[in-house]
Amino acid sequence: MVETTLSGASHHILTNDYASEWMGIEVLKLDDGHATIRMHLRQEMLNGFGMAHGGMIFAFGDTAFALACNPASPTPEEAASITVASGVDINFIKPAFQGQVITAVANRRASTGRSGLYDIQIFAATPDSATPDADGGPDAQPGELIAEFRGRSRTISKK
């Protein structure tokens, strides 16, 4: 599988992530505790009301969460474990529609021992108003806020 990336950003957990590949997720930015991703909403991602299926928005946010939780280039010690969701909440604020570009911006809020807390904001924009650099500054927003995703993480031994 080939990772879809921009600006040289890539993450080893996407190597066999067939769901993210099918969704067409692009990695825009990776830092310790941070990830920014985007995808284009396609017809097969819509529900019966003609808007993005909540499960698609959730899965998209979950991918940003996973990328922010796990180091892109783990040290040998870090490679012996993985960080997974111990619980998540999502609040849908506005609908998104076919043809829009959605962007998720994930940030670690707290980390203690094996537990962490992450906030992921999901935005939607028309293709001509979405910018490749979703982190263009403190006031830059890649479209309208459509969902807030909060993830609680737990680092566990890799089996």
Number of separate domains: 1
The backbone outline, from C-alpha atoms, is globular
Q: Briefly, what CATH class?
A: Alpha Beta
Order of helices and strands: HEEHEEEE
The percent of residues in helical segments reads 10-25%
Output the structural class: mainly beta
**What is the CATH architecture assignment?**
Roll
- Poorly predicted runs are 1-7
How far apart the termini lie comes to 22 Å
Q: Number of DSSP strands?
A: 6
Q: According to CATH, what is the topology?
A: Thiol Ester Dehydrase, Chain A
Count of helix runs = 2
CATH superfamily grouping: Hotdog Thioesterase
Q: State the strand order across the main sheet.
A: 1-2-4-5-6-3
> What value does the Rg take, in angstroms?
15 Å
Residues in β-strands, percent = 35-45%
Summarize model confidence as the mean pLDDT: 89
How would you sum up the major sheet?
Answer: 6 strands, antiparallel
How does this model look, in words?
- The protein is mostly beta strands and 159 residues long.
- It has a single domain (12-157), classed as Thiol Ester Dehydrase, Chain A (Roll).
- Helices cover 14% and strands 39% of the residues.
- The protein contains two helices and six strands, in the order αββαββββ.
- It has helices spanning 18-23, 54-69, and strands at 26-31, 34-40, 81-92, 101-112, 115-125, 144-157.
- Strands 1-2-4-5-6-3 form a six-stranded antiparallel β-sheet, covered by helices on one side.
